[in-house]
Amino acid sequence: MTLASALKDTIRRVSAREIQKIMRRVRRLQRQVKALRQEGGAQRRIITGVERRFTRLKARALRTGVSAGPGRPLTPQSIRSLRDRLRMPRIAFAKLVGVSPGSIFGWETGRTLPRGRSVARLRRSAEDGPPPGAQRSRLRPPSRKGPEGSTPLTLLP
Question: What is the mean pLDDT of residues 14-37?
Fold first, then answer.
């Protein structure tokens, strides 16, 4: 065997060993990437399920309103009709309930829902009516006839 062939043979063996070491690392990285992809897919499925349940709960809450104990549920329409029945502007009604006027707006539009003590105060104000000397709106609430048959607001005597 000549020196050249001996060198070639040694280089071939050393390079084959190095390639095997590198390939082991590559295979290990490939397995890790595969595991991460599977884990990411599982997490996406979990998030999708949570989002789906949240959407259903939100839709059900908006459909049925807030139920806190016995009595009819509080819907955006029932909160608005209570304020109309009490003939109170939003600011005075907010003071009566103990929240901000923005909260009243959110409840009446269905963007947010009253919680806890606010629900109890709404129910109590529905039962008790306005406190004596409460600020009342001087305008009658608009009729619910529709745009063509609606009547203009008139001042109360």
Answer: 96
CATH of domain 76-128: 1.10.260.40
- Compute CA distances 8 → 16, 17, 21, 128, whole Å: 12, 14, 20, 101
Domain boundaries, the chain: 1-64, 76-128
Question: Any idea which residue has 């963007």 for tokens?
Answer: 111
Q: Across the chain, what does the average pLDDT equal? A: 82
Residues 101-110: contacts with CB within 8 Å, 24+ apart? 104/79, 107/74, 107/76, 107/79, 108/76, 108/79, 108/80, 108/83, 109/76, 110/62, 110/75, 110/76
Considering the entire predicted model, what is its pTM?
0.46
Residues 6 or more apart from 114 whose CB is under 8 A from it? Answer: 66, 74, 79, 99, 103, 107, 122
CB 66 within 8 A of CB 119: yes
Question: What are 44-78's pLDDT values in tens digits?
Answer: 999 999 999 998 887 776 665 555 456 667 888 98
